[in-house]
Write a structure and sequence with these properties.
Number of strands: 5
CATH class of the largest domain: Alpha Beta
CATH topology of the largest domain: Phosphorylase Kinase, domain 1
Structural class: alpha+beta
Helix content: 25-40%
Strand content: 15-25%
Number of domains: 2
Number of helices: 6
Largest sheet: 5 strands, antiparallel
Oligomer: single chain
Radius of gyration: 18 Å
CATH architecture of the largest domain: 2-Layer Sandwich
């Protein structure tokens, strides 16, 4: 799990207290059968630049909530729905990923679609690396190889077989990407 960070000043895109009303979240979790009692130790996770990642515990179980930022873009809610769908589809594949616990595709609970996933230990390597990793070229080399292995595992998933055949527009994908990259 990425180290919990501190919430930014109220009113910002990362103001989780305003964007994740814990009573509403607990009520939704009750209806989904996801533990009971108060939400404990909520902490904003660092490493993201836009979406909210909130780590918390309930009934002794850890969760990570992901939801769009305060200022929604035209596709923010659809992005959350798509991410939850992909996480669900990756279950049982060799692709390492946080397990999806539950998704709220509606926007009326927290003002946006969101999902809950299992925490994953780690750090965001684009940020400052821990001393062990920063100081050891062999570890950084292994990180690069692990990334290649992860991409290969993802490429090995039959997207149609896992229910993602209608996700996106695969025809002409590379041609569209080159234009985007050049722009």
């Amino acid at each position: 799990m990425t180290e919990p960070g501190k919430a930014k000043a109220p009113g910002g895109d990362q103001d989780w207290q305003a964007l994740v009303p814990l009573d509403a979240l607990a009520g939704w979790m009750d209806a989904e059968g996801l533990g009971a009692g108060p939400i404990e130790r909520p902490a904003l996770l660092g490493g993201g630049t836009q979406n909210i990642l909130l780590h918390f515990e309930r009934a002794g179980r850890p969760y990570v909530l992901r939801r769009p930022p305060k200022h929604l873009r035209a596709n923010s809610n659809e992005t959350m729905r798509r991410e939850a769908r992909v996480l669900a589809a990756l279950k049982g594949t060799p692709v390492r990923h946080p397990a999806l616990i539950a998704a709220c595709l509606a926007e009326d609970v927290l003002g946006a679609a969101f999902y809950l996933m299992e925490p994953v230990e780690g750090f965001t390597p684009r940020d400052e690396m821990p001393a062990l990793h920063a100081g050891d070229p062999a570890i950084r080399h292994r990180m690069g190889l692990e990334m290649v292995d992860a991409i290969a595992a993802l490429a090995g998933v039959d997207h149609v077989a896992v229910g993602l055949g209608d996700l996106g527009r695969p025809d002409g994908f590379l041609e569209r990407q080159v234009g985007r990259w050049r722009a």
